[in-house]
Design brief:
506 residues; mainly alpha; disordered C terminus; globular
Length: 506
């Protein structure tokens, strides 16, 4: 019996909140894209993807990374009882980002036609002009998200980001598309969803943090805010570029419909991030608080790696085997062209998130922020130059290969760096069992894809076969550990008992 680690319980308990929100947000996100792909052509959807990619890139410069200062300084002032200074941070950050984001929005509106000319898509200029208003809106939205972090109220962040925004956006987009607005309908739904989410989020935060808002305002020195935020802002620039560089390269070399098809494939393949994104916000502080106890750090790292691999591996197998069927059924048959994109990206994301994730949360928690930034630059550089070289030759598959190579490379770098710096690694006998269980699951899934003629039947039956075989293999190989039972206990006592079946006799 291994030592009880309260951090494992915290990881499960807090991670489950964000996981639930991410699942709901992911389902609604897929529903929105399914709606779009059925009412507009791939070229129109591709234009919308290009326009929102430009917006999301510009808004990073617009807010200077200042929202990230809120969940760093506000908790400190609250802990010290200095409510006026906590209020001052929120007020100063909000006022600053409103000014800077408005200026960036104005600059984008004035240059919209020039950007459209660069991509040879005249309609893109109209989309950018209309969407420029969302740059200050996104700045306030990010302020609210970090504000909920600062008062440790993640459930209200889930309400605003994962429930209100996607639901309102879906309803508004559906109504506008039914009325025949096309690209304008996509833009209108995006703006309305964001506006309502901000309104609801602001109301909830004001109510829940009234003790802060009612305090006498005390302005704080701006230099520490900027000193903390600007380096993170530069890292965010690279992250955003990394997430959208493929769309920019495809838009430059190919047509807007290729961008739309690739976006659907990328979205399906990167859906594996949901597990990592749920655990990462909790995992980083757990590592930071125990960074001097490397034995405990490695134990927690191995638990997280096993859980990420154990949940995402069968999903990767399902998506890789049935990519064409899922694209055809969830979207439309024309998007099945992105099947290789899904296979490449799903495999690459599985490897990357298992060994530290794209934002290097383990390295961050250990204090190696410079290494994280260097890894991010490598990730972006390999992705960008790889896509630039391969897209003209291979089309959308070239962009997927560039991204996959970058993700595999940085995942390998992270493993090497962790071992070199602190002799940390996730590999163990229990980890091997989790990975090996994927072999019989894959073998069981292949006949479904080869011999079942209906895409719809494949979509329904493939998860049952793969996940069923995977789970039975884990039970047969006694792959569950004490830490697994401890994690499961935070979700359900019944689940804990099921996990504990394989622990007797240890």
């Amino acid at each position: 019996m291994t030592e009880h680690d309260e951090g494992v319980s915290t990881l499960a308990r807090q991670g489950s909140i964000t996981f639930l929100g991410n699942v709901v947000n992911g389902i609604l996100g897929f529903a929105i894209v399914m709606l779009m792909t059925r009412f507009v052509s791939p070229s129109v959807y591709g234009l919308f993807v290009l326009a929102t990619s430009v917006i999301l890139f510009m808004q990073v410069f617009a807010n200077l990374g200042l929202p990230l200062a809120i969940d760093y300084f506000v908790p400190q002032y609250l802990e010290e009882g200095e409510l006026g200074k906590a209020k001052g941070v929120v007020v100063q950050v909000t006022a600053t980002v409103l000014v800077t984001s408005s200026l960036v929005a104005l600059a984008l509106a004035l240059s919209a036609t020039h950007i459209a000319d660069l991509f040879a898509e005249p309609a893109l200029g109209v989309g950018l002009l209309l969407l420029s208003i969302t740059i200050p809106m996104l700045a306030i939205y990010n302020v609210l998200l970090t504000s909920f972090y600062s008062i440790k109220k993640l459930q209200y962040r889930v309400v605003m980001r994962d429930l209100v925004r996607p639901v309102v956006r879906f309803v508004a987009t559906a109504a506008l598309l039914l009325l025949g607005f096309g690209l304008l309908g996509l833009i209108g739904g995006y703006v309305v969803g964001l506006f309502v989410a901000i309104t609801v989020g602001a109301a909830i935060f004001t109510y829940k943090a009234w003790h802060v808002f009612s305090a006498d305002l005390e302005l704080v020195a701006p230099t520490p805010l900027l000193t903390y935020s600007l380096p993170l802002a530069m890292t965010s620039v690279v992250f955003v570029l990394m997430g959208h560089v493929d769309y920019f390269v495809l838009g430059f070399f190919l047509e807007s419909d290729d961008v739309g098809i690739y976006r659907v494939g990328y979205m399906l393949g990167s859906g594996l991030m949901i597990v990592f994104n749920s655990l990462s916000p909790v995992f980083k502080p757990l590592i930071a608080e125990s960074r001097d106890d490397l034995e405990l750090v490695e134990r927690r790292f191995r638990v997280m790696a096993r859980w990420i691999a154990g949940i995402t591996l069968p999903i990767t197998i399902i998506l890789s085997l049935g990519a064409s069927s899922y694209l055809a059924v969830l979207y439309t048959p024309q998007y099945a062209e992105a099947n290789l994109v899904v296979v490449l990206l799903a495999s690459a994301f599985l490897f990357n998130v298992t060994f530290g994730g794209p934002d290097g949360s383990l390295l961050q928690g250990l204090g190696y922020s410079r290494i994280v930034f260097a890894n991010t630059l490598v990730l972006f550089g390999v992705n960008f130059f790889g896509s630039m070289a391969l897209v003209p030759i291979l089309g959308i598959e070239g962009a997927a290969i560039g991204s996959a190579i970058a993700l595999f490379l940085v995942g390998g770098l992270t493993l090497a760096e962790l071992y070199y710096l602190d002799r940390l690694h996730p590999f163990s006998r229990d980890f091997t069992k989790v990975v090996a269980a994927g072999v019989p699951a894959t073998i069981a899934g292949v006949p479904v894809v080869l011999f079942v003629p209906s895409d719809l039947v494949i979509v329904v039956s493939l998860p049952v076969v793969v996940i069923g075989t995977y789970a039975l293999t884990l039970v047969a190989t006694d792959a569950f550990t004490d830490a697994d039972a401890q994690m499961a206990a935070e979700f359900s006592p019944t689940l804990e008992k099921w996990f504990s079946i394989g622990l007797f006799g240890r």
